[in-house]
Structures are given as C-alpha cells and as structure tokens.
Prior knowledge:
single chain; nine-stranded mixed beta sheet
Amino acid sequence: MSHLKISYDDYIVINDGQVTSEHLPSNVSFDDHTLKFTLGAPIALHVVLIMSKDYELTYEFGAHTHAEIIETRAINDEATLTRTINAQEEANVQFFNENMSNSHHKLTFIDQGNIDAYAHVEMGYAELSDDSIEANYHYHLTGVEASMKLRMAILSKEAEKKHYTINLEHNAPHTTGIMDNYGVAKDTGRLVIDGIGTIKKAMKGSESHQTNKIMVFDQGCYASANPYLFIDEYDVAASHAAAVGRMDEEHLYYLESRGLTKRDAMQLITYGYLKPVINVVDNEMLKERFEEALTKVGA
C-alpha cells in the first residue's frame, strides 16, 4: 500500500483489524470494529483496509451528520469483508468504495445496512480489480422518506468471475431506492448482476428504480444482467431496465478515424460508460486512480 496516496487530510488505515495510522476529526472515533460519526463539522474521510483474513467493519452515521467517505481495499489473500452501514435520521452520506486488491484471489463482500427517516445515502462501487468477486449488498430503507442511490462500475476480464446481488428493500412508506449498475466483460471473464427492488406491503408512496447494463467486448466472455422487482403494494412507482450488448463498432471506428489507437478508443468508450460511479464524490486523486485502472481495457 506504499504506492497509495491518501485522498483526504483525515484518514484511518486498518491492517488486519489493527489501526496502523490515523488522523481523525474530533467527531469521528474508531473502537472495536466500529467507526462512529457524530454531529459536528462536515466530514471527509479516507478509510484504507488492508486484509489478509476475514474482517468485519461497521459504519455508524449519527443523526444529522454530513459525511463524504472513500474506502480503499487492498486484500492480499482469499477473504471475506463484511460491513454494516447505518445512517440515522437526516444523515447525509456520500460513500465511494474502490477495490485495489489485484491479488487474483476469490473475494467475498457482504454489505448490509439501515437508512433511517429522512436520511440519504449515495453509494458508489468501483470494481476494476484482478480478483474474482462474490458480492451481496442488502440495504433496508427503514424510516419514512429514507432514500438511497447506488451506482456500480465493474470490469471482468481474463478468467475472472464476478457476481453481484444488490437488494434495496423498502420497509417504510415514501422511501426511494435507485440503483444504476454498469459493467464491462472481456476476454473470458464472467459477469452477473442481479438487481433487486423490494417494496413491502403498506409501504405506500415508495419508489424503486434500477438500471443494469453490461457491455461485452469478446465472444468468449459471459454476461448477464437480471432485474427483479418484488412489489406488495399498489401505491408505488417502480421500473427496471436491463441490457447486455457488444461495444458499438461505429463508435469505435469513428474514434480510430480521429487518430486514436484501437486500445485508446476502447479505453475512452469504457471510461465514458463507467464514469458516473466516480461522481459520487468530487475527488481528483480518485478520478486519476480510476483512469489508471481502466488501462487494463484493450490490453
């Protein structure tokens, strides 16, 4: 991790459960696998997780807190990361996750969380690593007018196998859950995205919307985008879209005709396709790392 630059002045580095470096603001504390955020000045924090074994981490965002989080993962062996993310009443959280493991292992990610009344969480996942991934993300909208917007950008290449199940569950009325999942599959990579929107009975006035799209580069890869809506209430708004298709050859030809190499053109198209995920936070260093990771496209 010596090559990784810290994105914010405030940060914490957790190596196999032990804090090895930190500079935390006064309204953030870490104790027994839990990061707690309390009311005070707006928070911008970089969390670095270095793992060689299974680990559990909880984020507790207190009522009315405002926080912008970047979490960077470097996992050096086959392991499971389990996280709980809770946002209390009227918390406002922008949270970006990047996996920089590149260990060629199989990794398991399990996220769960509760979004309380009037709280808003915007969650971004960038998965451009060289690992195979099994991920299950399940968030509960537990308070009236709670809302969550989730975005994912995934690259599956070579012989990687990446499977994501994302469930936004509405357990209170007038809640909003939106997910936009975008992926790229190339070589013999395998990518499956299962997007689930669940609105329970009597959760009237709620909205569940999702988009799942995968762009396919090569005939040898496998891609599947599967939207599911489980709706037990009539007075709701819900929609889904799913698409799997090859890169637009005309678009590629146009860029090559303007002097770009095929590799540069493929990288540019992929960057534009996956870029919305990094808009969760406004951080130039993060954008540079994202662009660097996309050099794997077209190689």
